[in-house]
């Protein structure tokens, strides 16, 4: 195994140093040579599932420009491996690298349904839509085995509590039986992330996600079953998917989405280094162009942390992207509307059944 060999099926191509740890891990040349001579793999590239036991699961979101009040994440880390993912930095708080570790060391919160139920039964809790995901995808591959998201949806249904879902995985359709019951009382809405119509782009940008065809069919299937769907065309990355805004918006509308959202890519924290290394290996012919255009959107930097500006960007390129989305909404979504979820039922179901008196 060569030191700079491309790691197939992964987004990040390295494990950058954890900023909170004094020690760091390095793959030395002499070790790699030893593995080669012995016929061993220095890195088997396998995903590890690690059980953790948090004390709380519902998080209050204080960021004023995120668009959600509360979120919960059944998993920490995400095997989807999206190279641009802002959540990578959060893996450092658990003692791991935001690079390959984020994709290969998945923390499993098996007590999430129990913690959620305790929260919804609390006398002090007032119903407010809780977003499943928000940091890492609740329908990532681990969900096939652990079913934590499904069990959480059962809790939301039991207590008639509103829930939003963000995912880029077609696995969400597995839970249509629960989702359709929630939808009867306007208690659920979904956001499906679709960042490109090109499978070639999808495979390198988001290596372990559902295909574009499956995602669009998921939008259609959810919509046909009465579940309102927003399509997130996010992030928009100049010179990678920025030319696809109008075709993506049309595809979303044609498949039943009631709205679209977008952000402009920002490479915060360690993601700047991870993304730069990745694009130099996957798109060397346009790496500098893409990086410079991202900088153009953030005042000459790969990231801007200012609320209200960090996800919208500034400058001519950002303005052009926003103009295309205004056109897309007028052309494809003028008569559609994403709903506000119902918060009026939960109080009567706080003990898990309807209170008659």
TrEMBL record:
Pfam families: Radical_SAM. One of its GO terms (molecular function) is iron-sulfur cluster binding. NCBIfam families: rSAM_PA0069. This is PA0069 family radical SAM protein. Keywords: Iron, Iron-sulfur, Metal-binding. Residues 68-296 form the Elp3/MiaA/NifB-like radical SAM core domain. The keyword Hydrolase does not apply. The keyword Iron-sulfur applies.
